[in-house]
Structures are given as C-alpha cells and as structure tokens.
Amino acid sequence: MYTFRIATINDVTAIVKLxxxxxxxxxxxxxxxxxADLLDGQRTDADEVSHLIExxxxxxxxxxxxxxxxxxxxxxxxxxxTYLGMFAVSPQEQGKGVGRLVLAEAENRVFxxxxxxxxxxxxxxxxxxLIAWYQRRGYKLNGKIMSFPYGDERYGxxxxxxxxxxxxxxxxxxx
Length: 175
Description:
Low-confidence stretches: none
Mean pLDDT: 94
Distance between the termini: 24 Å
CATH topology: Aminopeptidase
Structural class: alpha+beta
C-alpha cells in the first residue's frame, strides 16, 4: 500500500539517496529515468534538500510503500504557478505505476492546497521518453527553453555540450 506525506529534516539522507539512485550511476540504469549517459557527478546533496524542506513556500512530497521511501517530488509555490522538480522513483519501483500516483498526489496538493492554476517543470530536452511520459499525463510544451547550468556541479557534470532544458506545464484547474 502506498502512502504520502511531507518530508521533514529527518528525511534528508533518505531523499538524497533515492534521488541519486534514480538519476546517477550504475544503480540508476535499473530504471528508465537514468541520466547516467548525460551527466556524471551528483544530482542533489543534503544542503540542497535541507534548504528545500525548510523553505516556507516549498515542500517535498514523499511516496512510501510499507513505510519505505520509494518516491519523492519537490514543489515550489510561486503564487501564480508551482514549480515541480526533483521527481524521483526508486529504480526498482519504476514501471509499476508509482510515478503516476506520486504525480497525481503532487497535482492534487498544488490545486487543492495552494490553489495554483499552473504546474511547471523543466526536463533535459534530450529525454524524449520522459517528455512523452509527461505529455501523456497532460503536460504541454510551452515553447520555452532554459539553459543547462553548466559549471555548477551541484546539478551534475555534463558529458555533452548540447544540454538544454525544455519547459512543460499543466493547468491544474482542469484536474
């Protein structure tokens, strides 16, 4: 059975471990969300996760199965819209519908608790399979492209020089 809750500072280590396992290194290759062919280095760290948890307009929604952390997603309330990021599902749980459930939980919180009409995210444009997954869940390309933060190793060490972020959004008021 899956349960959801908001992360506390006591969850920082587990969140970092989960996010790293979903995106970096050999362990991430067990799932389909790996960025291991695009980026080396870290995906996040304890300082960043602590800051996100402590930020008053931010929360990290945790998905648990039998009291074990298997998914997370960060939400940042920007009043007129909400930014969704650091969405991770344990590689062993990927492909089982967990991501769909966590995303639906995040969308419901954004609309019902924060009353934000738009949910927005940025995805590496080369991740066509991931972009298509979001599109099947109602997200649309909004035509905006963001620069990848080259030189900031907090987000990884690029293995390519052509990384950019594609922005997707969804109107949460039609959920």
